[in-house]
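Page 37, top half.
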Amino acid sequence: MKKKNLLAIGLALVLSLTLILSGCGNGSGSSDSSSSSKEDSSSSEALSGKITIGGSTALQPLAAQVAKEFMEKNPDVQIEVQGGGSGTGLSEVQAGNFDIGMSDVFAESKSNIDAKALKDYQVAVVGMTAAVNPKAGVKNLSKKDLQDVFTGKVKNWKEVGGKDQKITLVNRPDGSGTRATFDQFALDNKTPAEGITQDSTNTVKKIISETPGAIGYMALSYFTANDDSVVKLSIDGVDASEDNVASGKFPVWAYEHMYTKGEPSKLVKAFLDFMMSDAVQTKDVPAQGYLSVKDMKVQRDAEGKQTDK
């Protein structure tokens, strides 16, 4: 009788232990499976939707190239990139019409923009200089002569060492970030004289190339290799090169900003992260004629003050 009781107790203990171990095993397996499924879902979750980007025509070529690459990696994403100028980029992103507003200037510089409502992403640096028709016969001007040309004090290229050719000014409109940058850092905020006014950098370049004696200004990214339709002007003997911009020797440059209205959506944030990725910053940014912010040895604040990094 005693032996039977002991046997029954032993069988009960074995059965209980088996059930406990089985329960633990199933719980662990279920947890791992759920975790694994969650990770796979997160890592493979596809991006989809539309992004509208607009504003600065100086930044437009880079934005278009990066958008193309992003869409190739994410086939369900559609990105529209348009120009219109920095003023348009800032006002339209503030109004909620653009997901990303491109600007060559800080939002703080525009009186009609609530900079505190916008989030600033400095995605690149752009150098700018004057573009001159080859028939003008000049490749370099002192800063003073350049200012005299744009303010109308000098009306013929022969007055500053060029050919006997009337000067035709090609300006950007007031809302242009390229104009704001050129006016501030090349003209020292002197008011340019009346001339032809065009909003598109491509149109400005075309007019200059087709008009003997014409001068305007544009981002360095628009001066392309093997294109001698316009002359890239040096200032005070300093070449408008990427190295000289990065070191601060050439003064006419600006950050290229991408602004969002408040925190960006998941899709827009993914695009901005891609824009700042090493692949884009080390390949696309220089290939398109811009400088990576990481390569700059100097920096500027919203008031235009330049200091060493």
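Page 37, bottom half:
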Amino acid sequence: MTMIFPDEYKYVGVTGIHPNDEHENTIYFLTEYLLVEQEKRSGISEYSLYHVIKSGEGLLQTVESLEVIASGSQVIKYGKDLNIKDRALLIETASRLCLGNVNTVIFTGVDKHLTFVHNPDMSSILEIEIVDVTPPIPSWLTHVVRRLEASGIFGDFAVRFSENVTDLRQFEGKNTVFPCSTSELKGKYLDSDVITENGSLVVGCDISKSIFETRFPGLEYSLVNICPFKSDIFKPSKPFITRCCCSDKSGLVTLNGINGAVVHWGASEFAVAESVRDLVMHIRGQNQ
């Protein structure tokens, strides 16, 4: 059963006149689906949903036929107004409601336009993993992505985010060297401390490694690499977004055959949103 979910609510026409009672056979040129609402004697509305086959040019076109998609007890209307541009939300909601004979859910937007989801398919929602480190709590990238998600900017993409965040506090210790003192992690810092003894554990990336070896030549140390490209603690298993301190590595990447997007360590919200968009479009394009 293939999911039907119009790309735009402008493709859904709504009428209170049943097609059998309609004397005209013209319809607005954008209408791909026709939703018929008829009130029964009980006062409860019953719905029928049709796919419109039409011909002609201009604003009003000729209806050649109507194909029934769902009707009667197969169709229910969700009782609350939602952001109907949030495709993941509507698919998830419809999936919970499509039980028994029900296969179609009608949704009303905050602007009172209508759309529907027929045979909701949860696999159509793309999960993207936020890969980052903490502190701060929440991680910087998690904080940005979640705020963007709440704004609705990703609504058309039908995406949901999960988190794969490494807590660097697990490496704290008197011999641990972190890149930056602003992290307030317990240990030493490359930007403020002087290391004089062998045996340090450097938690950072190749740049941290280079700085340590330049500042403290000849000292023996071990490295926990947290760079997404060479990480000792992260292996991607699903599409991801992460960040790197090297701006020239920003963009779409593939790690272990998994698609991802990399933003610079201090990227703006706009840059993060663009990266998510680019990743989604790339993956959707591959799957078409």
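Margin note: The chain has a mean pLDDT of 92.
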